[in-house]
Amino acid sequence: MSLLVGQLFSGVSIGAVLLLIALGLALTFGQMNVINMAHGEFIMAGAYTVYVLQQVVTSAGASLLIALPVSFVVAGLLGVLLEVLLIRRLYARPLDTLLVTWGVSLILQQAARDIFGAPNVQTRAPEILTGSVHLTDDIAIASSRLFILGLALAAVAALTIVLRTTSLGRRIRAVVQNRDLAAVSGLSTGRVDRLTFFIGSGLAGIAGVALTLIGPIGPAMGTNLIVNAFLVVVVGGIGQLKGTVIVAFVLGVLQATVEYTTTVSVASVIVFVAIVAFLQWRPQGLFTLRTRSLA
Amino acid sequence: MFGYRGRRSAAVLVAIGTVAALTACGAKTGDAVGSAQAGGGAVVDTSGSAVKVGLLNSLSGTMAISEVTVRDAIKLAVDEINAAGGVLGKQLEPVSEDGASDWPTFAEKAQKLISQDKVAAVFGCWTSSSRKAVKPVFEKNKALLFYPVQYEGLEESPYIFYTGATTNQQIVPALDYLKSAGKTSVYLVGSDYVFPRTANKIIKAYAAASGMKVLGEDYAPLGSTEFSTIVNKVKASGASAVFNTLNGDSNVAFFKEYKSAGLTAEAMPVLSVSIAEEEVKSIGTQYLAGQLTAWNYYQTTKGAANDKFVKAYKAKYGADKPTSDPMEAAYTSVYLWKAMVEKAGSFEIEKVKAAANAGGITFEAPEGLVTVDGPSQHVFKTARIGKIGTDGLIEEVWNSGQPVKPDPYLKSYSWATGLS
Amino acid sequence: MTGLSVRDLRVVFDGFVAVGGVDLEVPEGDLRFLIGPNGAGKTTLIDAVTGLVKATGHVAFDGRELLGRKVHRIARLGIGRTFQTAAVFEELTVLQNLDIAAGWARSPISLLRARRSVPPTVEKALATVRLSEVRDEPAGTLAHGQKQWLEIGMLLVQDARLLLLDEPVAGMSQDERDATGELLGELSRDRTVLVVEHDMDFLRRYARTVTVMHAGKVLSEGTVAQVQADPRVQEVYLGHPVKEAS
Amino acid sequence: MKRAALGFGVTAALLFAVAPLVLGDFRLSLLAKYLCFAIVAVGVGLAWGRGGMLALGQGVFFGLGGYAMAMHLKLADAGPGNLPDFMILYGQLDALPWWWAPFANPIFALLATVLLPMLVALLLGLLIFRRRVRGAYFAILSQALAAAFAILLIGQQGTTGGTNGLTDIQGFFGYDLNDPVNQRMVYFVVAAALLAMLGVAWQLMRSRYGELLVAVRDGEERVRFLGYDPANVKLVAYVVAAGMAGLAGALFVPAVGIISPALIGVVPSIEFVIGVAVGGRATLAGPALGAIAVAWAKTALSERVPSAWTYFEGLLFVLPIVFLPGGIAALFKWRRRARLVPPAEVKEKVAA
Q1: What residues of A are in the C interface, CB distance below 8 Å?
Q2: Does domain C4-87+156-244 correspond to CATH entry 3.40.50.300?
Q3: Residue B6 pLDDT
Q4: What is the spatial distance between Cα B308 and Cα B335, in angstroms, rounded to a whole number?
Q5: What is the pLDDT of residue D343?
Q6: Is A263 within 8 Å of chain B by CB?
């Protein structure tokens, strides 16, 4: 029983990590049709931000809290820089953004190696986030995982509120739905693009902070995560957040379940097969934004 | 306008070329003359005042983290030797090549070092995969490789010297230690590649013979950083210890998850065979303190030779840089080669090999006196179990007392029959 | 029965009824114009007939049911269409565009060979749509009107029996419109032609019959004169009476 | 046509006469490796440059071809009735796994190097293209395929060699690979294969099918209204590209002596594409030349300044694609711009 709960929670927490990573992608890929392979390196930037902050702020707890907004801004600014320098020229060529940002990710990784050294760096986590929370006597769940789950849900809530209620959100949706019309109506699509990219990349920074609690902090930390996160967005369906949220958790639980009964390598193959099978049923993903313009 | 002449002439050219190539074919497999002709043997260029030695390590890619330190240690040894007058009166000129964490690249660069640079010996490689990839290159060219990392055994190549531990110098002593510490059951966690799988096979054979229980076995893909399921399984198993053969980044995620799950070094210690001082630094003692490692050398190992090595290394590369087992083995390998060359009185590869195979090659290494075992081309090494301290250093808690004779095929262990 | 026959056609997008129960008969030899205000469902009707959007009801051409068939299967039954914004393959030459349009029935072998001569139907179509001069130019370099013609040319070589044209003369000069009108008149003799068009002047000159759509339904049908006289049509076009729309 | 004849003639002369005369054994065997990458690139150029399918999973097909070849060569090395060395070491098997057995037959193995990748591509393509999964979705899915396949291979150490892959291959259909003369022979075979594949791609590109493929790339929906099923059109290019990748993988094995999952995953698969982008994705010779140039640059740069290679590779992805989308070929081909301009991404004009 305790194992079952523990394993279910594992699935949910894998889902939460996926969600945190995929959320930013849902915005840049889902809303802007940019395949940003450097998203993983923005995560890395967020994680290194924690490392750098901890050189200054000694309290692990305080540095983590400060790191959340700082990483958001650091990664967000990197995103804006990328958008202004390169992506802007590629809006008509979404596939090319994939290759170009892959190149950017290589450069960022090597830069991190040259700045921080090739080995992983070490950050301290507040003691409270290294233990576990006991639900009952024999059911305990990792507090770091709980924190990440909370963070992921908070990020979803915040993003939903921004998209639904603020004028920025309305503008983003307007540009997504009809770029030309939005431009004609006097919206600065360029500014909206940059802001969208800022938020999407900033979310990667937040994910980076969260990952310092559970994984290595090194130049290559982003690469392992990115393909799965993209799959989440693809399967979830672009243009809507709820698909991403649902699919992240479903894939997490699926991965954890299959992994438990077989092996990690079989699990990743089964997950892939499940995704191809799913796309047979719904080639556009779980939810699609139906407009007349897409057949 | 749409004629066929163009294609036809090209096709004819292709055909001629292919036929020419095929008729010019060389030796068939098993053809004695051909083999001899094929393997005239690598020629060492000793014409100048310096002799080249090859350094083959991943300087980029995922393995760079570990292999750069090995390269640094080799360079340190080369510098020291040069400062002391070189080998047979010749200075050593290191030629460093990047294996880029990619096995075919290792093979390519090995070939380059041998045939372009005509090096006297090559030092390097870390992963078993890279060693397996270059092994045929060295055998084909009859050139020398010194391999400095602990590995899974079950291999002897006439052109490779193994200066890291084989399984009976690391895994087997580690199991002996766990058994003597009263650990009756283990859970095996490893990365999905050759070393962990072979190590675990040995552990299972050992356990079966000694009454130790193996409660589970899990492999994560190299680079995997998601361990919640595996840690759940470990926790549920109730094993008395974990034998960890994870590699690289995976260790960080594993130990963070391990601590989060409320598992401690006191209740369920993890014995790791791939975590050295450098890795401790990047994982953090917050997660590692009290856990066990199995190596043949620690930075804290006592002895004048080690004091000198640590001091020289830190002076050259920075006071915050720790020294570790693979670095020490790499450093030692250069000196062992020097001893072989000097004994042979020649850089010629077959002569160097003959000198080594005759036995008696020793070096007062940082880990203590090491001796090359002539027939197997492995090295006698002292096994050491260490405990990770809160200062990030590893303190020895047990050693084998004397250097253990290398036995890559575990022929001297009755429980291991059928493993190789 | 020959010609296009639509019965109770409905298209719904996420609750929005784009076409709500349309009945339409276009016999062979007709040149039918389909008009109506924006959002009346004209283009959606064509989309439904050609299989681009899902619809319920019945659509038959020459007695064969079209609904439920895939787009390319419908095309193979001899149904061709053009698009509001000319959809030609801009990086291929005019000749290549037409050659592709003529070729779905080619065998794999002939597909894998290079074109050695210009097929007679393509040659003829090039002349008909007055593009012989520019046949080796990339279609992307054509003027807007020429692209529209290229699309019509593609319908010709495709040997479509039912032609569905979505605003074929938008952006054309008066001369080009006249030529297009003549061509349509000629084509419609032994084919079924349905034209969506806003240009009322063009409509008055070339339409044989007219169907007016409004809010997803057929509002009125008949000759140009009959439709113009229909009070319901005038009501819909209030403020934009038919007579002034050109 | 004359240009094509001239091009093939010059290429053949360079590959068969000049290179073997100018290069030493070591450099020639490196060139053989580059040419293998070039063969993959020719296929990618067809599928991506002409067909708009950004195939980021070519490593899978390369691997299938390579493993098929290596399995046969390992079995041949071991001799009839014996297990390959690594199986004895890691597999603890008593008998050959059933799916290894047919590869003992050289004809089966040779056919499998090309047909197996094509078959896999066919099945996958049917599933993907029929359901109109395309563009970015296709790219990401093909990338995930590469990741999954590599992990699967690594996980089966006893029967696939795991991370090590299949190494230490001694003979090639009876010829001793340790003999430099035979290494030259392998080079000639690779060069001939590249020329042949260039010929196949050339014929496909100039054929009506080639024109149709471009049409599908630029207006998949539009092509449907002309009575074609674009899924089939794309499938042909995808399957041919897979076959070329398989052939390249098969030749890579004797040329380099190893096939391993390191050549299959996400990273090597995307590296197959970069040469294509640099050389000129929609041209015939561009992808092959680009692949050779990039592989050569990698060797040359990493011999001199190892860490600089990563920056350089990063810039290779960024600069040509952003600023010279037509690749190097575009610099030379202003005159014949009709077919050679880079694909503007699928324009779904039809939609409206």
Answers
A1: 290, 292, 295
A2: yes
A3: 43
A4: 14
A5: 40
A6: yes
